[in-house]
Write a structure and sequence with these properties.
The complex is a heterodimer of chains A (about 170) and B (about 150). Chain A is an all-alpha fold and about 170 residues long. Chain A is built from 7 helices and no strands. Chain B has about 150 residues and is mainly α. The chains are: A mainly alpha (about 170), B mainly alpha (about 150). Chains A and B meet through α1, α2, α3, α5 and α6 of A and α1, α2, α3, α4 and α5 of B.
Chain lengths: ~170, ~150
Amino acid sequence: MTLLLHDLPPLHWAISGALIAAVTVALLFVANRRLGVSGGLDDLCSLALSGPYFRRDFVRSSRPWRLPFLAGLVFGGFLSAVLAGGWTPTWSLGLFDTVIGLAPAGKLAWMFLGGVSIGFGTRLANGCTSGHGIFGLSNLEWPSIVSTISFMGAGLVTTQVIYRVVFEWSGGR
Amino acid sequence: MSAVYVLLGTIFGFVLSRSGAADYGYVQAMFLFENGQLYGIIGTAVLLAAPGLWWVQRRGRTAVGGPVHVERKVMNRGTVAGGLLFGVGWSMTGMCPGPILVNIGEGKVYALAALAGALAGAGAFGTLYPRLQGLFHLPPLPPARAQ
């Protein structure tokens, strides 16, 4: 199995996991910051929305670190593509195109809907794969264990229903 | 300090990009139990971060001598409900919040729609917070300060 990005073989999982752990610990050790990406959605929203939820000190005080961190995520993806063989805008989505096969407009609508679930869900759960799944689990926080089981479980059921039930895809086995 | 955050974000983004964590196919393969790559990554990251985070908190000081304080997550009805909703979106898009940004950087055009959706979802949540508070037993907002 290879990545969509230039058909590259992926980095070894142990190396990838170790680097993610290093970034997580470094954020706390260097700057007393708790890793978490979905909180950045609040920060971005707070630039345009002014409800009391977005005026909290928690949001305001995290913007100076989270916004640069989010910019780094975009840049990291860009750098990865450039070093892999060049940056090119692409619509291709591998398995999705083969099995579900929506035209660009349908794909955008699908992604937008999925995005709404991600935005609303991660804020309601107060964390995502990074804040709950990596930091929270590593820090043995009970709510993170519960939330991680919830989102892993829901992701599993959704993918199984889409690929195995609705589209009856039997590939990959 | 901003440069440090950009650097750490860049490393994180690069690793997500090259490891499969920001790849639609690897996310589906994880949920279909066809490929263990992402389970290996999360497992390794948690196993290695745990002693590191424990050590930094026991030390109680950052590298530059500042205080270390971790605000722990609180449990409420949103912990499960929000997690379930997020899981559906993760499966649909093949992206969690970090990888949405990484995929935009890589040039995957459809990730822009996922970001627009995620901002709309987070914006709706924050705007509806006062109404959702009772339903999900969410913590009260601190009193609004004068602008």
